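[Structure tokenization] protein backbone as discrete codes

[Encoding] learned vocabulary of local backbone shapes

[Begin record] amino acids and matching fold tokens:

___
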Amino acid sequence: MVNKVTTATVIGLNAYEVSVETDVQNGLPSFSVVGLPDTAITEARDRVRSAVKNSGFSFPKTKIIINLAPADLKKVGTSFDLSMAIGLLIEEEVLMQENVREYAFIGELSLNGDLRGVRGVLPIVIGLKELGIKNVIVPTSNAKEAALIDGINVYGADCLNDVVNHFIETPLKQFKIDINSYLADLNEHFEYDFKDVKGQQKAKRALEIAAAGGHNLLMIGSPGSGKTLMAKCFASILPPLELSEALELTKIYSICGLLSGDNPLMCKRPFRTVHHTASPNGIIGGGSNPMPGEITLAHRGVLFLDEMVEFPRNVLEVLRQPIEDGEIVISRAKHSIKYPANFMLLGAMNPCPCGYLGDKEKQCTCSEFMVNRYLAKLSGPLLDRIDLQIDVPRLSAKELLNIDENTETSAQIRERVIRARKIQANRYKNENILTNSELTSELVKKYCQIDEDSKAIFKTAIIKYQLSGRRYDRTLKLARTIADLDGAEIIGQKHLMQALQYKMFDKDELNI
């Protein structure tokens, strides 16, 4: 008689139920796994056989067929080992089918029967809960991660014997975590602080605006002007994650195997620094079994590209669609996978190959042709998607010596950012967005109204700087963020004027 054991697999960020059907027939001893398994699942035959025997149980000495249903769904990974072993133990009458009917099983087996942690436990448990599964047994190393989800009983086991004893003698310990207190108890420590950044008040203000509204930002300046240091300090002024954001990020990092067993919840906004040798697939994700790329790992956080023009043109251009849509679709012959990619792009670059174009102290040695070829690596459509573009000049002697300068700390700036984010969260509570940067064109019309005097100023700017429709919307969203930082309900002329000055219209505007 065929028995069924419940588990699940992950495709993209979504979990799909898988029934592990086990049938033992008369015939020569053999062990077959069908149902579109990958190599890791096919190799599970040897792992499961050794784990069952070394745990003290008998192994069927006949023909064994295990089907992973539905058979047209590709299965990847090692998380099916435990459910396959349970199916075989039911056939050997060690366990009863009715006892495991309301359970799902996840875990990789070692040869001696120990349970090893696997990737993607959180999205799997979320999917199982939505399917009405009441109980799930996972490796102990994944138990905290699985217990982040309310409404399903999570049990952690160290080995196959623990799982069997749960149904016979000694029930496993149920794991529970108060996720809200987990976030509340977080004591965030940042290595870099804005109090250590000398001068550059305009750049600091731009970074504050970017953090408050989730906007993209590009810094252009001479070597040593502080661009990289300010980028590293940027993480210290980002607001804390909302619970929904933390769970969304945890799903992504769980699939990539980047979660810590002791800290199963992503509590800080990611700050991903990418080297300019990264490939397009490394940035957007992909592979034969598609995995998230850097833009998805930076979801709800920051993707920092230092020396941005050193990245190949094709790598930079793949960022255009995710920046606009907040997601990336990876298409393959048999299926497409959608990953979230709502990140802030933070870039830094020199104004020319030698780095000193427009510098007041050191003369540039580049020809006009070299400068134009260098800056042409950033296309117009990509620059159009970067809300704030600022010049970061060489520090003066007074700024270097930090004479009589009262520099704000990151904590002080962060308070203003958090206050502005709370205003946005309250304003957009019924719109399914969190920040001003996520506003659609329709929502821009609704929430970014300006008065007649401001319209006249904006009209002049549109004509003078030939603003595109996208730049028009992004300027209004930026002005909305500046108004939120001021606590103003209406976008005023000063907010619009400030938003306009953060667009790099031509070289002369930035003295480069």
The chain has a mean pLDDT of 91. Residues 14 and 123 are 6 Å apart (CA to CA). DSSP finds 23 helices and 19 strands in the chain.
